[in-house]
Model the fold of this input.
Amino acid sequence: MQTLKRVLALALEEAQTGFATLCRRMTDRADEVLGEAVRTAPAGEQRAPAACRVFLREQGATLRARMERAYAGLLARAMQTMHTDLRTGLHDFRADTLTLVDDDVMTRQIEVERLLLRLRDADELSLGHLNLIIAQMHGDSEVRERENPFRPYLLARTLYDALHSMVEDEAHSKLLFDTLSQTMTAELGDFYTRLREVFESRGIRSRLLARPSALGRRERERRDWQRAAAGLADADQAMRRRVAALGAVRQHVEPNQELQELVYSLFNPAGLRRGTRAAQAPAQLQLDGALRQLQHEHASASAAGAPAPLALRERLAGLPPGPQRVVAELAGMLFEFILNDELLQPALRAQLCRLHTPFLRAALQDQSVLQNADHPARRLLDRIGSAAAGIGASSPLLAPLQGEVQRLVERVLQQYEHDPAVFADAELEFDGFLASLLRECEPAVRRCMPAFERAAQVAPQVAAIADTLRGQLETVSIDRRMVDFISGTWAQVMAHTQGSQPGFSQLLPELVWSGQEKQAPEERAALMKLLPGLGRQLRAGLAAIGMPEGVAQAALDQLVSLHMDVMANKLAPATTPRLSIAALRERLGASVAQALAAHDAGGADALPGHDHFRAEFALHGQQATVQPDPVLASAAHDEEWLQWARAGNGFELLSGGSYLPLRLDAVTARNAGFLFTGAGLPAPLVYSRAALLAAMREGSLRPLEYAPLFERAVESLMTGAESLDASR
Done:
């Protein structure tokens, strides 16, 4: 594939330039580290770091030049053997090919592996995307880092070999390798990020997971294209027609240009400048008028009566040569692929193909439509395609979905002139229809929605109450353990049970008073009388929000420990006046009531987590499996994956080594929560935003589609262009 070869060549150039920059930063930082070691080490231990620092200052440029040459050689070989198995198989082993491995080789392998682990951890996300991009470029369903020519092993091997070829003293060599390893890891910085951007800026993005099924379909399609392009007698007739149609586009290719390059430049953001509009020449105005007439004819015809995409292309065969002709030809090819997409039901494919004419008009008016995934016309196609794949052919929701798609398609056909807002409005209406359809027609979703939506609403309240309580308790003499329990655990009980069980909020003054120092015997006696009832109410509050028994017991055990210290008079003396229960009720009552009533207080940006969803489902008496929140924060590019998380879209859940089909049935405001159902699930599955992103990042949850509908069509078109170029 010539276009991809050019992208790989650009990535190779970026890798060599980036490696040179990395080497310079690595040695500069190592000089600083060794200088600090000389200054802080005892007098008897300064000799080695001083000698290593002298080496870097005198031989640093030579070391960098040697590393750059070595890396270029390793990189060139890695590019040649990428996804080509040149390793000796077991059947090739013979006695005369076996050799002994000496200690030096083993030492090198150990040291290189040690650095390799550090480098992987330095930018795991971008490296993972690169591994996946390389695998998918070669149609491989298995991601193997050893096939990535930019893998960190080459960096580690280059440093080790160059350093040990220049430094004979073993102790100095080891110290230099350790120091340079540390600084290379610290300075790896944007090395892999920039490499990844080389691919992504040219439209080559990693899928969330390589799918054997998707790759298998792609390989079958490539084979069918190749057979039809080669003129083999047993080629599929439909594929023969596509080859003929794409062959007509080849007539517009310049002598020194390949068809695949033309297709790539037309659909890739780097090919044309976004937002550029074609000049409204008389020929184009005439063409737009003809298409407008066809559009209105299609609006009054049924899906069965609409011409096939390639037939429309043939009706426009009289177009003069030029960019407009190419756009018209390729738009017809794109909708031909949509008409044959395996993930869509035939009736919905036909409805989407009725949008061919208004889409072509939009593309002729603004060719960035073909490149901009956020253009309303493309978004509408992709949105309907994703929902159709998620709902599936056997769902009772398919019939109303088809009716709504038909209504919206006819509306676009009737109203579109030049304003893309027609497509955007149709998408908004489609989103609203899906949300209502899934909520009203799925009993499990309908039962869960009050709890699901309430969790998103109460999350800011929990944050506001916690902030209020922490501020109030700073002025009260109270043990830190009680402050943590009230602001962390009891604030959740108060917010979630507001209105249904107000007694839990009224318990706050007694709770605060129980955590204060008790000097007089009568105070300790009053506490002894209070504690049994207090304990019962605390346990009831934690149970009401569905807190697991083990977690609830641990929280209560902390309070038991605190109360034992209070009874034994072991608390530190109070630094502020101690208040009675009545005084605490007066001080805390107004501020807590205000926080409970404030929906837009200081925690307005707070998003619900596992605890919020668990609490609301428990309070509403609904069964749901709430996924735990991740320990680590989300990665930088995780937000891109939220584009898939729209109601009606299909997903797959990893379970027992295989994937179960799911459907995303509801999404709360601000993409804060996600509710899934599936035939194999005993109860709905609920994710917070953090939990969803973590699951998609690790691969335990993935979209049903490996790419949006329009992008799948472009990939098919690229495969066809590649096959025709190869058949020349």
Summary: The CA atoms of residues 127 and 274 lie 29 Å apart. The first helix runs from residue 2 to 40. Strands lie at 625-626, 650-655, 658-667, 673-677, 685-688, 701-703.
